[in-house]
């Protein structure tokens, strides 16, 4: 894992062989969990050169740790914010719709789409010049709740029912991709089935690239539920008004005023929105 | 609806034109509901001949009514007995399995069946020399609960996943039919989808011929829950022992004795089983 026989220079000027274990222990003492600590050591170890000082190593290690923890903490916070988009599934659908819009798609929510054998309520229909994507969005309030094989199966049958259909979304007449998006995870069986049968799954930590947090980061959006200056009830009110993005809060000050919010509160929340949501 | 100008002979020997309304009213006074009363009048009216006496007409009408009510009452009782096969779905699956056996099929319950993209838990696999049928059994405790489009969709995707499969049940290597059986009803959308996509649905009152009560009547079986000499708890105990047919009760006296039942109770229940369940 490390370059062999790297000599590092200690504070007193003496030399010694690099000791990854000692570095890992000091990272753990500073609060990193064992997985992150060993990742940081591995990362730093790969960039060692002969004659580096221990201070340089520790400075480098702690800056890598800060970045890793910041990303882990942002991801953790996003996961919680998505779970808070309840209790109904609609704010999550709207959030996903906004995500597609930011990625350059036209979007319609809650469409009845006629298939060969049934009409189906599609949560999100999104298209650009090259692709027509239909999306089933599964919101779960509990992180532990996984979308299972039965969900993947009925979504597959639904997309099959659209296979011979002719649509009219922009210049797209055929369904290109059927997606099942959830804010939590999928069971192993659902993943295996979907990979084999051609249903595209997007969930928490799945797939490795292009998963839900990757797409949200690409789109550059932030759920309104991430704001700490709003109470639970205030977030609910905003979501009922169709405001699910931090970014929307900033844009809709007038609407909030009409809802009876005071200037001071609006500015406080807007300030947090700008701070948290424009990163 | 009636032969024109039929003259009937009254008790006092005088003649008058047949009056369906009067007959219907007397049937309703005797307890028939309006639908059944008008059905009986229609049935009797079609068989009228000139010179028939009013007594003959009434005798005929009431015998038709008795048959109709008996069938309606038996069907009503069967529906309730099927609902009582809860609280889990397993007794219903076992009951359906027994139904297939009586219709000459070999039957396996709760099989993991490997499809192209997933292994699926099939409630009932049944086959004879000519057909391999796989069945998803949906038990609902409430008559009002209907199996909907999503159920039909995932069942369809599951059967699709078996389409290219090679099996080994008797001499059958290919899946011939995929059935979705429920003890209640299906939504209109589920019915339309299934008809169009080739999933066979069997439920309460659906389809018109070959529905669940028709199949049960053909198989000549009766759910244990139809017995009035058993308490709710006793029925539960028997179902936990895998006894779901009236007919099984008669056959399993020794097992019941081993469970601590007294001779007198066993004989009382067996007597009712023979009376009710051997019709």
Automatic annotation (TrEMBL), chains A, B:
The keyword Cytoplasm does not apply. Residues 6-87 form the ATP-cone domain. Pfam families: ATP-cone, Mrr_cat. GO terms for biological process: DNA restriction-modification system. Keywords: ATP-binding, Nucleotide-binding. The keyword ATP-binding applies. GO terms for molecular function: ATP binding; DNA binding; endonuclease activity. It comes from the Bacteria. CDD domains: Af1548-like. InterPro entries: ATP-cone_dom (IPR005144), Restrct_endonuc-II-like (IPR011335), Restrct_endonuc_IV_Mrr (IPR007560), tRNA_endonuc-like_dom_sf (IPR011856). This is ATP-cone domain-containing protein. It comes from Candidatus Taylorbacteria bacterium RIFCSPHIGHO2_02_49_25. The lineage of its organism: Bacteria, Candidatus Tayloriibacteriota.
């Amino acid at each position: 894992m490390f370059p062999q026989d790297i000599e590092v220079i200690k504070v007193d000027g003496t030399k010694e062989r690099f000791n990854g274990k000692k570095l890992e222990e000091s990272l753990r003492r500073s609060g990193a969990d064992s997985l992150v600590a060993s990742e940081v050591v591995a990362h730093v170890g790969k960039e060692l050169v002969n004659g580096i000082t221990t201070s340089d190593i520790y400075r480098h290690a702690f800056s890598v740790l800060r970045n890793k923890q910041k990303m882990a903490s942002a991801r953790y916070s996003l996961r919680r914010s998505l779970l808070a988009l309840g209790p109904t599934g609609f704010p999550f659908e709207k959030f996903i719709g906004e995500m597609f819009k930011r990625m350059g798609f036209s979007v319609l929510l809650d469409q009845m789409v006629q298939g060969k054998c049934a009409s189906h309520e599609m949560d999100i229909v999104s298209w650009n010049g090259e692709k027509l994507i239909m999306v089933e969005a599964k919101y779960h309030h509990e992180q532990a709740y996984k979308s299972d094989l039965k969900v993947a199966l009925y979504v597959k049958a639904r997309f099959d029912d659209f296979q011979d259909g002719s649509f009219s979304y922009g210049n797209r007449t055929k369904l290109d991709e059927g997606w099942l998006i959830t804010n939590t995870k999928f069971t192993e069986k659902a993943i295996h089935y979907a990979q084999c049968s051609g249903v595209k799954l997007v969930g928490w930590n799945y797939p490795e690239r292009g998963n839900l947090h990757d797409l949200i980061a690409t789109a550059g959006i932030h759920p309104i539920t991430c704001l700490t200056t709003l109470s639970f009830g205030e977030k609910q009110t905003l979501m009922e008004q169709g405001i699910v993005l931090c970014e929307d809060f900033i844009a809709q000050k007038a609407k909030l005023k009409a809802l009876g919010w005071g200037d001071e509160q609006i500015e406080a929340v807007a300030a947090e929105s700008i701070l948290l949501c424009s990163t």
